[in-house]
Design a protein that fits this description.
This protein is α/β, with parallel strands linked by helices. 38% of the residues lie in helices and 19% in strands. It is built from 9 helices and 10 strands.
């Protein structure tokens, strides 16, 4: 029965990552040591499993009286159920308590890079992790401060690549931040903020940045309103006429999606033919 329940949790962690409120994709790398999660509250256990997997760890569910396996480095529980040698997490501060517990326990994912999440706005929220572990968070006074923080972090960890993930909200501020970031030469991704806002207070920019920094986004080559898109759209429209032997020309909206890599030419043409 214990093994069946454990397998069910692992399956749910995989299948529900899209339906879960956090919608966190799995990373490429995994930690060597496992992390145990123990609680009679199955919903809480599932939430923690999802979070741990998003951070690159290998969690396992432990039954209430189950002995801790030899390869489990840390055991997490609720503060109400926390036993000797276990780390308790508050239900209403789950993400921040988990980050603190993992940092204090010295766990690592083997991932060597700096990831910075930015929630754009008049006072942007910024959260960063180093080698898969959250290291800091702050709310900045103005959008221009984002590039300064990014430069400081990359210089402090100059032996690691830096990835900056920016939420796609507040287009004016977002594009201003993106332009500054492109000058740094670091990889930049644009993250769909609809996947980050559920369950957060409206002005919780730190919480939003924390979720943004965990989510894979779309790699950015140009900011969304860069005038160079216009020329790329015209080129895609020309290619669409060649592709269809003159039967149709993609409208600018579909052509822009192809230019951004969101659709292939075949998908865009099929979509257009379906409309017509």
């Amino acid at each position: 029965m214990a093994e069946e329940r454990r397998q069910w949790f692992l399956m749910m962690s995989e299948d529900c990552k899209v339906r879960d409120g956090l919608q966190i994709p799995l990373p490429h790398r995994r930690s060597v040591a496992r992390i145990g999660v123990r609680s009679a509250d199955f919903t809480w256990v599932h939430q923690v499993l999802i979070l741990l997997r998003s951070l690159g760890h290998r969690p396992c569910h432990l039954e209430t009286d189950e002995a801790v396996p030899h390869d489990v480095q840390v055991v997490l529980s609720t503060v109400e159920e926390c036993g000797s040698g276990e780390l308790g997490l508050r239900r209403d501060h789950l993400e921040s308590d988990l980050a603190k517990a993992l940092r204090n326990a010295g766990t690592t994912t083997g991932e060597r890079r700096v990831v910075i999440g930015v929630d754009p706005g008049p006072r942007p929220g910024v959260v960063w992790s180093v080698d898969g572990r959250e290291e800091g968070a702050k709310q900045l006074d103005r959008p221009d401060d984002v590039v300064r923080v990014v430069r400081e972090l990359s210089e402090a960890h100059d032996n690691r690549p830096t990835l900056v993930r920016v939420g796609d909200g507040d287009p004016g501020v977002r594009n201003r931040i993106l332009r500054d970031l492109f000058d740094t030469g670091h990889a930049v991704e644009l993250v769909d903020e609809r996947r980050t806002s559920k369950g957060l207070a409206r002005h919780d920019h730190i919480g939003a940045a924390r979720r943004i920094h965990r989510l894979r986004g779309r790699a950015m080559g140009l900011v969304p309103d860069d005038p160079r898109w216009e020329g790329m759209v015209r080129d895609v429209q020309r290619q669409s006429r060649e592709w269809t032997e003159g039967r149709l020309t993609l409208p600018s909206g579909l052509a822009l999606e192809v230019a951004r890599g969101e659709l292939s030419m075949a998908e865009a043409v099929a979509k257009m033919e379906g409309i017509s």
